[in-house]
């Protein structure tokens, strides 16, 4: 029964089902050829809002992508769909990028920006967008930083994409090594040895949490060394929607989108209006040689709860196309009436972090340095 309901866009939680007059659980019920099945909705609302929404389609010949956004006008909902051919899709991506960056002051004239350049599709697409739209953007200085120290971070195809995309803009690619990480985090063991212990032990669910915070701290460290005031991350729209799913289900504090200020630095998310699918298609059309990258390895594969957050984000996009537009605007409004963020500086790595309400925070230690200390890595 669950397969029948799902195929027709009906949530299991929305109905009560009887088979041959007997109430049954949908999860354990198989539909037989002679069964009489009655499905009653437990709450009256119009399921066809999502099953058969009102749609206006702006078509084109030979489309390769359709962008759908749900519009809410005085409570009346309509999906508006614009189809793009290859040339139109490239224009759409570049226009979405430029307008989102300009309208929210994400990149400002005279800024000195450090961008984390992993060579993954997001950071490579960001540099490609800059390369092709730079004349429409404010003039700023940028340094790309590639952080090494783990096999996943040095995967040959990914590393080559990082080098090629930096060369396309004529910017230097600064390499941060494991020695730099061990120095900043005052580690007593090699970084790769510590991370091997993480992924093979009981704390393996913290694998990506530790990795991401190390990456962030090393970008901050380089920004401070060169006097840059802005750190750019290549998180795309569904990355940020997945982060909001985690935020809503955990209660942990999260800074603003697409700009947040913490510890004297501005953190920006220039790709917050472009989805992962759109970025991959964009690269495939404008720079396919940069779209051939390695699969995730043991250090860049997260726990199942990460998969749940991303699956929820993808399902939300399917049920409510363009939900990111609504979420980011509402989240910006919520930031105005939430309690002010309380900053703390780590006494080990000297990174600034946000104190979390309702949970014990170690004294003057960020999560990573506290974890490294308890595991005797530092």
From TrEMBL:
InterPro entries, sorted: Rossmann-like_a/b/a_fold
SUPFAM superfamilies, A to Z: Adenine nucleotide alpha hydrolases-like
Key words of the record: Transferase
Source superkingdom: Bacteria
PANTHER family named among the record's database cross-references: ATPASES OF THE PP SUPERFAMILY-RELATED, CYTOPLASMIC TRNA 2-THIOLATION PROTEIN 1
Record protein name field: tRNA(Ile)-lysidine synthase TilS/MesJ
The organism of origin for this protein: Sphaerisporangium aureirubrum
